Fold:
Amino acid sequence: MANKFLEPEFLRKLESLSVVARKVFMGQLVGERTNPKKGRSVEFADYRGYQMGDDFRYVDWNIYGRLEKLFVKLFREEEDLTFHLLVDASQSMAFGDPSKFEYALKIVAALSYIGLANLDRVSLYFFNAHTQKRTGPLRGKHQIFSIFQVLEEMSCSGETQFDRFIRNYALEAKIPGVAIVISDLLDPGGYTEGLLALRYHKYDVFLVQVVCEDELFPPWQGDLKLVDSETTEKWDITITPELLEHYGETCHKYFQGIENFCRRHEIDYLRTSTSIPFEDLILKYLRQGGLVK
Amino acid sequence: MTFLNPLGLVALLLVPIVILFHFLRLKRQEKIVSSTILWERALRDYYANTWWKKIRKNILLWLQILTVVLLALALSRPCFPWMGKEGGNVMIVLDTSASMLARDVSPNRWTVARREAEKIVDKLGRNQQVMLLETGLSPRIVVALTGKKEEVLKGIASLSPREVPADLEKVLQFARSLKKAYRIKNIYFISDGGGKEFNREVWEGERDLEWRHIGKGNDNVGITAFSVRKSYRSNFDYEVFLTLQNFSNESRSFPFTIRGGDKIFYQQKFSLAGGEKKSLVIPVVSRGENSIEAFIDIRDDLPIDDRSYGIIPFPPPISVLLVSKEGYFLQKALRLHPRVILKVIPPQDWASGQNVDVTIFDGYSPSEIGEGNYIFIRATARNLPLQVVGEQESVSVLDWNRQHPLTRYLDFSRLRIQRAWKVNPPSGSQILVGATSGPLILGWEGNNRQVLWINFYLQESDFPLQVAFPVFLSQALDWLVPLAGYEQEGRIRAGETANLRVDPRLREVKVIDPRGGVKLLPVERGRIMVEETNYQGYYLLEAGSYRSSFAVSLLSEEESNIQPRIPPLAPLEEERGWETGQRFYSELWRYLVFLVILLLMLEWYFYQKFREGLV
Structure:
């Protein structure tokens, strides 16, 4: 089952994890997640009076013996959960070592495997200025190969239109669930509207921002012409230590703004750098962030 | 601040070229980044914070523009007038005219001017050279350009004001002519502005000229015109013409006296209102007094013009030797002349070397004559240039020179001559009376001889019977024996050159000025030129037994008017103040070039820092 995204040893570790949904979603198929609906799981939920047509197998005969009244036992329904993995596949994700996109694909692979292993449904959505790929929802552990296949084929290019495509996705997806958005959030058009649209459509949103070290601590100085990888816009700049310091402050303010926004709108937010080992991210930081347990 | 070469500012056109080059030359290394969104925000905040950061963004460009601007300024050679000790060569012009003797400042203008000059010399820098000039009717270099202050101070000490008027315009032109040759940077003109009225336009635009003005008052009464002339009423009476002028604003009263030797001709008390001018004609009767002096007794700021000197034109005798067999008409006419002491000898008694003023040869031609004054009547000498070529009969006068002192006022139109010489006039001679076939009377001067030829016998003409004859003879004697100072009548003004006729037999004449100074002057063609008439009074001319004199007086209304006159430059100097030191026009281009070098070094420093990314 191993591939370039996930090592077998790591996969075994992932099997013990599951994605945490902050709220209970209505599933479509029987799964492993309890549901407010009464169903056919083994977990007792309640009694109700017998009605014509009820299955005699669910009549609690012990109560009938004591009370001479027919009561039917009700059980909790266990349904599946849909994970929506929304991945930014714009050109800006191609930076870093490993690249942010590569890092994001690994996150997608890991979370997909966790979801599929827990009988949840996994839906993948890659976007830049267009919808690059839409897969799923997929269910069942065996679907991980399809996902790997998709991930193998994916590449990043072009500009981002984060808000537009996230908003469209929120409108189009029929079954809300946990939306895990993976992006570097370096879209001049902003990110707030897309995320708010997900929240509006009852998604439990988990935002993973992937940045690389060069973005946090640019290693350049002197007279440069900075070229935006997405827009090809050019900026003449003279990078001085003072400017670098100021750039660091600007980054900090930008990240702080994202944090504040997410906190206000009950969006879980995790910022990670490509320099952080991927396994640490999944097993340690995503756990601390409350996405998996 | 002014620009000596405003064309240099054209270099400012390089500024847009620098800007163009700046944008063309900057090849920045391209760096592809994931997104510039964060850089954009960082830069926006960064450069919005301070203007300095904005400037620093293009500091190299700013430095280059500043360099070009300073370079253009340096090329335009800006200069600042400033006070200081440093500067180029300087010229000090000291006014030594009569008005500098005015006592309106203590002790007098001259002393103050001299101190001012000494002050300037003291303040000169070590490398500065100085030239000293004095004014007068003609300027004079007292000390040539030198770096030795002692020499200049010595030169200043050697000067004293002369009793002459000044011609400041001439002095300024002279100073200007020297300025370029000696690379003079500043001219200090120390004067009261008095003297000959100058053209103000001459002073305008003279930037390197600094006027140090001396004097403040105008309390002066003076004699501005004085002459003694013969009265028309009598042969022995004279009259004095003079002008008294009050230059102050106040009315002044004073006694006025005219005297000759110890004899007082005239004494009267006068009163002149402020600015009033009064001309007088006063008759005087001389009984042998030769000199005459007019003076006013007043205490004013300029005493020198309170006195004027003249010579009574009392004619001395003329000794005449007549060499003639008979010469009746001549003797008669000469004996009537009041100045003539006549001696008559026959031709055989004549010998050269006679000590007489005039020798008249009447029909007798000597072989040779010496130097002196001669009248030849139908005669000549071999060592004279007159050539006799023939005779002319029944001669009538065609024309005569009406301007010459010998023949003016005379009428020769009725003169009839039976016979006369036909001559070729010598070169340089003047034909005084001419007939159709040649000259009848000629005048000639040369080789210290003054000769008058009359080419006909007087008895063979009706000339002795005409009124013109004695007058002609009298005028001929006056022409041959002029009187030094006589015709000038004491009207030689101080500073002017006296061109005097003296005995033509003299080789040189000793001139003694009123202060006892003696100078030996050569006699040329019966004249001496006395150039140094710097002081008022009587100048004596002596040569053996020869004695004569002439008088010199200031007689300058412009000089007597001691009211300070300030040329157009003065207001500029008043703005700066008189006592602040010397003015120099220092060029700033050296400093600008130094700044340019500094800027280039700074640019290099920033360039290196930018390359290293340290700034």
